[in-house]
Amino acid sequence: xxxxxxxxxxxxxxxxxxxxxxxxxxxxxxxxxxxxxxxxxxxxxxxxxxxxxxxxxxxxxxxxxxxxxxxxxxxxxxxxxxxxxxxxxxxxxxxxxxxxxxxxx
Length: 105
Fold this sequence. Notes:
- The chain is α/β, with parallel strands linked by helices.
- It has one helix spanning 2-17, and strands spanning 20-25, 30-33, 39-44, 48-54, 58-62, 71-77, 80-86, 94-100.
- Strands 1-6-7-3 form a four-stranded mixed β-sheet. Strands 2-5-8-4 form a four-stranded mixed β-sheet, with no helix packed on it.
Protein backbone atom coordinates (compact mmCIF):
# COMPACT_ATOMS: atom_id res chain seq x y z
CA UNK A 1 0.00 0.00 0.00
CA UNK A 2 2.83 2.40 0.85
CA UNK A 3 4.50 1.65 -2.47
CA UNK A 4 1.30 2.55 -4.31
CA UNK A 5 1.05 5.87 -2.47
CA UNK A 6 4.69 6.68 -3.22
CA UNK A 7 4.23 5.87 -6.91
CA UNK A 8 1.09 8.00 -7.05
CA UNK A 9 2.90 10.92 -5.42
CA UNK A 10 5.84 10.60 -7.84
CA UNK A 11 3.61 10.45 -10.91
CA UNK A 12 1.73 13.55 -9.76
CA UNK A 13 5.03 15.35 -9.20
CA UNK A 14 6.25 14.40 -12.67
CA UNK A 15 3.07 15.69 -14.30
CA UNK A 16 3.31 18.93 -12.35
CA UNK A 17 6.95 19.32 -13.41
CA UNK A 18 5.86 19.38 -17.05
CA UNK A 19 3.43 22.29 -16.60
CA UNK A 20 4.37 25.32 -18.68
CA UNK A 21 2.99 28.64 -19.89
CA UNK A 22 4.64 30.24 -22.90
CA UNK A 23 3.66 33.39 -24.77
CA UNK A 24 5.79 34.61 -27.67
CA UNK A 25 5.19 37.35 -30.21
CA UNK A 26 7.05 37.26 -33.53
CA UNK A 27 9.18 34.26 -32.51
CA UNK A 28 9.27 30.97 -34.38
CA UNK A 29 9.38 28.15 -33.42
CA UNK A 30 7.68 28.05 -30.02
CA UNK A 31 8.11 24.70 -28.23
CA UNK A 32 6.94 23.03 -25.02
CA UNK A 33 7.31 19.52 -23.60
CA UNK A 34 4.06 17.55 -23.50
CA UNK A 35 3.16 14.03 -22.45
CA UNK A 36 2.21 11.62 -25.22
CA UNK A 37 -1.43 10.58 -25.10
CA UNK A 38 -2.65 13.91 -23.75
CA UNK A 39 -5.41 16.16 -25.05
CA UNK A 40 -4.62 19.25 -27.15
CA UNK A 41 -7.12 22.09 -27.58
CA UNK A 42 -6.37 24.66 -30.29
CA UNK A 43 -7.69 28.13 -31.06
CA UNK A 44 -6.20 29.31 -34.31
CA UNK A 45 -6.43 32.41 -36.48
CA UNK A 46 -7.92 31.95 -39.97
CA UNK A 47 -5.02 30.93 -42.19
CA UNK A 48 -3.27 27.87 -43.58
CA UNK A 49 -2.53 25.64 -40.59
CA UNK A 50 -0.88 22.25 -40.98
CA UNK A 51 -1.24 19.93 -37.98
CA UNK A 52 1.12 16.97 -37.98
CA UNK A 53 2.11 14.23 -35.55
CA UNK A 54 5.60 13.74 -34.15
CA UNK A 55 7.31 10.78 -32.52
CA UNK A 56 8.61 12.69 -29.50
CA UNK A 57 6.80 14.38 -26.58
CA UNK A 58 6.96 17.96 -27.84
CA UNK A 59 4.52 20.64 -29.00
CA UNK A 60 5.88 22.99 -31.64
CA UNK A 61 4.33 25.92 -33.50
CA UNK A 62 6.38 27.31 -36.38
CA UNK A 63 5.88 29.82 -39.18
CA UNK A 64 8.07 32.05 -41.36
CA UNK A 65 9.69 34.48 -38.89
CA UNK A 66 9.32 37.44 -41.26
CA UNK A 67 5.52 37.25 -41.15
CA UNK A 68 4.79 39.93 -38.56
CA UNK A 69 3.67 39.89 -34.97
CA UNK A 70 2.06 36.49 -34.69
CA UNK A 71 1.25 35.66 -31.08
CA UNK A 72 1.64 32.05 -29.93
CA UNK A 73 0.53 30.92 -26.48
CA UNK A 74 1.06 27.37 -25.24
CA UNK A 75 -0.24 26.34 -21.82
CA UNK A 76 0.49 22.82 -20.58
CA UNK A 77 -1.06 21.42 -17.44
CA UNK A 78 -0.48 17.71 -16.88
CA UNK A 79 -1.97 15.83 -19.83
CA UNK A 80 -3.82 18.84 -21.30
CA UNK A 81 -2.42 21.53 -23.59
CA UNK A 82 -3.96 24.69 -25.01
CA UNK A 83 -2.47 26.27 -28.13
CA UNK A 84 -3.60 29.76 -29.19
CA UNK A 85 -2.33 31.41 -32.37
CA UNK A 86 -3.50 34.99 -33.03
CA UNK A 87 -2.41 38.01 -35.03
CA UNK A 88 -1.81 36.11 -38.27
CA UNK A 89 -1.14 38.40 -41.24
CA UNK A 90 -3.40 38.34 -44.27
CA UNK A 91 -2.22 36.99 -47.59
CA UNK A 92 -1.23 33.34 -47.72
CA UNK A 93 0.05 32.93 -44.15
CA UNK A 94 1.11 29.34 -43.39
CA UNK A 95 1.95 27.79 -40.03
CA UNK A 96 2.74 24.29 -38.77
CA UNK A 97 1.61 22.81 -35.47
CA UNK A 98 3.36 19.60 -34.38
CA UNK A 99 1.92 17.43 -31.59
CA UNK A 100 2.79 13.95 -30.27
CA UNK A 101 1.29 11.21 -32.48
CA UNK A 102 -0.87 9.67 -29.75
CA UNK A 103 -2.47 12.97 -28.67
CA UNK A 104 -6.20 13.67 -28.86
CA UNK A 105 -7.14 16.88 -30.65
